[in-house]
Each structure stands twice: as structure tokens, then as C-alpha cells.
Write a structure and sequence with these properties.
2 copies of one chain form a homodimer.
Chain A lengths: L5 H12 L8 H8 L3 H13 L3 E4 L5 E4 L8 H9 L28 H18 L3 H11 L4 H10 L3
Antiparallel strand pairs in A: 1-2
Helix pairs in contact in A: 1-3, 1-4, 1-6, 2-3
Chain A binds a DNA duplex (39 and 39 nucleotides) through α3.
Amino acid sequence: MKLSNGVEWALHSCVTLSQSEDPVPAARLAELHGTPPAYLAKHLQALSRAGIVHSTAGQVGGYVLTRPAAEISALDVVRAIDGTEPAYRCTEIRRRGPLAVPAERCQTPCAIARAMAAAQDAWSAALAAITIADLAERIDADSDGTAMADVRRWLASTG
Amino acid sequence: MKLSNGVEWALHSCVTLSQSEDPVPAARLAELHGTPPAYLAKHLQALSRAGIVHSTAGQVGGYVLTRPAAEISALDVVRAIDGTEPAYRCTEIRRRGPLAVPAERCQTPCAIARAMAAAQDAWSAALAAITIADLAERIDADSDGTAMADVRRWLASTG
DNA sequence: GGCCGCATACTCGGATACTGGGTGTCCGAGTGCGTTCGG
DNA sequence: CCGAACGCACTCGGACACCCAGTATCCGAGTATGCGGCC
């Protein structure tokens, strides 16, 4: 099980966007995070499709969060990048082979699928409980309250 | 995020093995589950390397669980197949770019990495709480107590 | 001086190559059983 | 009749192709800005 690398970039980008009222171009986010600009842009498109960020074209265009950072969960971002499909997909092994279970007895999911789904729910719940605002606050705390101010200052500068 | 297909086969195989005292060849497990024999064998090798099953060669060889099914968690099986590496790997974005955090301030993991690790822990805990014996019991309950008996009967038959 | 139109530079968005891990398969090495031969 | 040696069939184990999703990149479409010209 491997999570796309873009998830990390998207989460950092959302935290950064939470510090700016004005649109921030993808190229600028890429510069700040030290990532390939074109590839980061691809993931930002996914965030846009998911309705997490709003994009504006033109000379002073860029990306802005569509709603307050406290209303965007880490789960929202992860699902936007990685998709909503669960990690475990039951292929209905029980309905194959010499001991195949007839279809009419497969109303409820396989017990193994239920266990895996419960684990996925626990994972999702943990991510749903964390918001972008929480992440920004914690990053700030890790740096004794200077990190987010530095980001705001850098975003305001002409680069 | 996508979980290897072999995880499903491995879990079903372990449940099946929990119903047999005698070694069960990979080909027989593949026949019961309707899976490609060679590919299933590959995953059983992983279970063997992880110490979950013991393999015996020779004419009446096959695979046997190394310990009671109640002492094998779903997490053990998943990790044997999928590896122990966490889904989210922090690439230390904070240490790159114009606002790079100096190394001496990176003693603790990034707040984002901590959040993702917490989610992974929740996922792992949910799987660790389920044993192969639990799964066998639930599958039996789903079938009104006939499934495991059918498996035992089929394994005992000469096929 | 104010307003309108246009060229411009910048932005996003999707379409296009490349690569690594998962998928699937095969054959060789090794082992325990059954048979057979000798005592 | 009993024991040991042999052959065998069956098993696992690792090494070898194939394919899709993630990785990375580029160029075209569209838009808000700023300037210049006109009234």
C-alpha cells in the first residue's frame, strides 16, 4: 500500500494557501516547496476538481481555498488526490471455486471485507478529525510561532 | 492508495489453513479460491518468510499455520504481503525551498507526517484487533455454521 | 480628463511520454514417501 | 519376514516477462491587467 507522493504536496500547499487571502500561482507554491512545478500543478487541478480550491486565470490569478481552513479536513485533501476508492477491494473469492457461495447468500459483504472496511473507516475518521487549520497551528507551534508568519511574509514579497 | 490483491488471497488462505491440521499445498488453496496457482504461491512464500505459515516439501507437503489462528492478526498477514512501510512517507518538504527549516529544528517529525502516522496507527490497530480465528468464526456465522465444516470436508477429500 | 478597445503577459487545464511496482508465469532444487531388493 | 537403499512424484523457492498506475513534462486555451488611442 503506497500513498501517492502528491498527497504530501497537496497538504503542504493547502496549509500554505490558508495563510493567503490572495490567489497564489502554482509556480510559486512549487518554488516554496521545492517541487516540480508542472507536476504540482497537476495535483492542484485535482484539488480544484474536488472543490477544495478555486482557481482564477489571468495575470494575478492562482489558487485560493474555497472555504475556511478549519472546514477542510485532511481526509478531504487525501481523497481529492488519491481518489475515494477504498484500499481493499473484495473480489468475492467466496463466490468462486468448488465451495462457491450462491449469490442469494451474499447479501452482506464478506467478513474479511467487513474487517478491512472497518480499518479503513478508522483511518478515514482519524484524518477527518484533522483540519488544515489544525495542521497550520501545529506547524506553527513546532517553530515557536514563526513558521506561518514567515510564509505570509514570503507570499507577500514579490519573489 | 491501493492494497495488493494478494492480501485478500492471503487472508482467505489463512482462514482455510486454520481448518486443517495437515499441510495444504498451494495448488489446492488456489483451486479452492479460484486463483492463479503460481501467483498465489508467490504470496504464500511471503507468508512463509514472515513466519506466519510453515512450508514442508515432499509428496504430502504444503503449508501449515505456525501458531493458533487466534494468535495471528489480520495485521500480521497484511504486513507480510504488503510490507511494513507506512503508506505515507514524509519527504521533508519543510527542509527544502526558500523557507527551509534548519536540520537542528527537525528533531520531531513534521506535523503533517504526525497526522498521517496517527491515521495509519488507527488503521493498524483496527487490523491488529482482528484475528484469523475471528474471521473464520464470522464467516461461519454468515453461513449458519456450515462454511468451515464444508472447508474441512473438502480439504479431507482427495479432490 | 474620462472611457473604450486592444495587445500582452500571465494563469490554468488537459493531452502526451516515461518509469517502477504489482501481476502473472515458468522451471529448477529439494524432500518425504512408496517400492523394491537383499539379507 | 525385516531393513535399507533407491527411484519417484510431488512440493516449495526464486528467477523471468508483462502491464497498469503513478511520475514527470509540455504546450495550447482563456482571462484580467495595463497601456494607448479616441472622444
